[in-house]
Amino acid sequence: MLKSRRNEILVAAMLVAPFIAIYGWLFVYPTVQMIRLSFTDAPLIGEGAWIGLENYVKLFTDKVYRTAVWNTSYFVLLTVIPGTAVALAIALVVSRLRGYAQSLVLAAFFLPYVLPVTVVYLIWNWLFDVQFGILQSVIEPIMGQPVNVWRRIPWFMPTVALVTIWWTNGFSILLFLAGLRNISHEIYEAAELDGAKRGQVFWKITWPLIWPVTVLCLTIQLILQLKIFDQVYLFSLGGRTAQTMVLVQYIFDQAFVHNDGGYGATVAVSLFIIVVAFSVLQFQGLRARGER
Amino acid sequence: MTATTAEVSAGEGRTLRFFDVGSVLLTILTVICALIWFFPLYWALITSIKPEDEVVRPFSGLIPENPTLNGYIYVITHSNIGIWYLNSTITALSITFLVVLMGICCGYAISQLRFPGRMALWWIILASFMIPVPALIVNHFIIIAGVKLLNTHLGIILPQLIAPVTVIVYKQFFDSVPRDFREAAVMDGANEFQLLFRIFLPMNWGVTTALAIITFIGAWNAFLWPFLATKTEDMMTVTVGITEVQDTFGVAYARVLAGAVMAGLPVALVYLIFQRRVTQAIMLSAGIKG
Amino acid sequence: MNRTLMKVLATVALFAFAAGAQAQETVIWWDFLGGGDGIRMKKLLEDFNAEHKDTIEVQATTLDWGVPFYTKVQTSAAVGEGPDIMTYHTSRIPLAVSQSTLAEITADDMTAMGLSQDTFAAATWDAVHVDGKQWAVPFDTHPIVLYYNKDKLTAAGLIGADGLPAGLNGIDNFKAALKKIQESGTKWGISTVTADGNFSFRTIYSLLCQQDGVVLSDGKWLDGDNVQKLENSVKVVADWVTEGYSPSYTDYPATVALFTSGTSAMMINGVWEVPTMVDLEKQGKLFNWGAIELPVFFNHPCTYEDSHAFAIPNNTGKTVTPEKHAAVLEVIKWMEAHSLFWATAGHIPANSAVTETAEYKAMQPQATYAVLTANGIFDPKSKYAGVASPLFDAAGNAFTAAINGETTPTEAVAEMKEILDALE
Known about the structure:
Chain A is mostly helical. Chain A is built from 13 helices and no strands.
């Protein structure tokens, strides 16, 4: 009995060893290091002196950091709720289709999700090109002249948010589709027999039943968009980076461009805290409302 | 009975007709929305096969007048896209293989075996979702630079092997395998490895293909880490490389977009061929986060 | 069959052995040269490799200009994985030296390459020195110039008897000229890069210099009346946009496209766009054009210029073999000797032996604007200045708003001074 137990532990150890090795070396260890680094003034490569909370104090007076927090929050606002709403709407209409038609339509909405960010960047850069972009022929009549959306501050974030929703919505649509499929058809039939109108069907039946999926979707999107980097970095290249900065980008900027590893780590820790706080809060809040 | 049926059918007939019009309109709206959503991809594709002077003509059309592959030829002959494809393939396949394998092994162990620290490990993995991996790029860079693996395939691969999702999905699936299978096999004298690779894994082959495909797509599309970890063109993946290409061509939109199309085509094809599996994988990986 | 195979294998092996016996040095090269520059540099590298087959092979990588390039260099050198040689902007040398990114170029190195102080212009020579030590070898200088559409300017009566533009000196004269051009049917009098303040900084800096203003003096930023002079400079460019002579938020490719399509009659851009014009002209797709020194808007001529130089990174922990070092020096020496071809990229070669030749003097429009190096001014020599530096960033953030009318020049300059003063 003892022998087979020891054997079991040995086998388990062998099976989990690779994962733990990678995880420990490249996840747990860097996290600990990141926290430690944030209390030093180290450059990117090399040692630095312990300076205690100095970096954290600097966060509060750093104008660009405040901008990064604001921009990240703004971005989250522009993508999480609108994105989820759009996904639900699309899922609702797609779920009405069947078979081949549904596959085709779904593919159209989902295809962007599988593309790399750089491809998305090049495509939308072209669409909005100030001189030849086809979307400028929509913008020009409204604004009177073509708009360089990547260089005009009020336009930048909303446009990047639009592109992001286009790019990542497929994921949320699938979640909603799965959720909608789980709703028993009989409930709808009963409502139809009772003479319920479309709007009532949605608000009284679909919405409450799909609520867990909505929560899931919002949570995933929130955590995802707080970590935004790729699109913002690419679209703001060569532009007014101080005003379009977001948090992960600021980590990169401080650590790699300004060679301030310690401060970069501080920003990273702050992001970590924000992500945890946000996700816990939101989760609790939505759960509470759901259980009402 | 017949009267009721007649009443019901008459009633149905009325409501059916009402729903029909609204229904048809809604379907048309759906199709239009799908077309609009697809338009950016279509426009990029079309532009990439137009000659440059047609691209920049005002009111350039939705169908190219003189389709040409010049853009693609230029990208193939003037950039290192072949090498980039190679790097992307090597790194993406390696990551996929290693992540799935580690997920299988670790998920099986947590699910089926009892060992000290099992629950602790499980909680650490679950909690790790909240730590934003992009925040660790600084330390990843320092570590990989420290072992002199920058600008190498291994250096690109290693930080991308962190995939708690795979472990979690496998653990859940292995949990749902009926205990009889295990008991019967143990009685037949099978050891754990045989159990894993001959029984548990084949039972969950669908999950494996789904996760493999989604991991592959994720690895192919990765930007931030490969961008930081590579320094010379011969090591770049195609996702990173095409952003270098912009400057080399000056202002030549068809070429730039040809590069973009070439970069995105492999993963797009993988999706279109394995559509069902990808869908399944998404639902799986989200299902466990709730 | 078997024997023939053996013979073939043996021959192949012999060749391989022979080829390997001649030790070939590989030189890893990084640059940021794209567009017209990139094509010409690639040609130079090809020629070098062909001439030095079996002895030296240069393996070149081109990275994105600006912040991406310099960030990669810095992070790579810090871990000892930088290249063997790279192109570098002299404006950034003080910053690089402060971060120990560069390796010193010694007097022996210069002798080995057959170069000396006399090879280069005084300002250029000074630009590669920090604290009396040399850190790079200048390759070219590249100022900004005024490109003009000769046909359109002639139609507006702005071409003088010598065939060159006339009546452009002075802020009001220039504006009047822009107005005349637009009245005779051209959409925009002038196009400049208004979407990126750090590019417009070159124009603004030139105008500042024309008033004898400086950004940095005795370690103080924008001291005294330099604030007012900088405001005046910003105002000139901002007025062009607000008064409708120049399109707003125009990025680099659009600026060039506007000029080459004839939508704008003039353009302020770097000399590196000359090959673009030359190539288009050869295809018969361009109007009569020219490029001249920036007009005098204030007191005297002055134009911003920067310089490309070759630098050797200081790869931490890596020792360079004498053979490798010699190979690198050979590359630099060869490039310097062949910089006449580089002049076709629009740049002014730093090697005076080349600029003195009859062939160079015959090049147009290079010969017309080559004279401006006498009135050229480099970035302030500071570790906060140069491409992808804090000053560069500050300009991008402060000036873009002012140029496009979002804020006033006064506000922009105040913001700039605030950022600069906060630098440690």
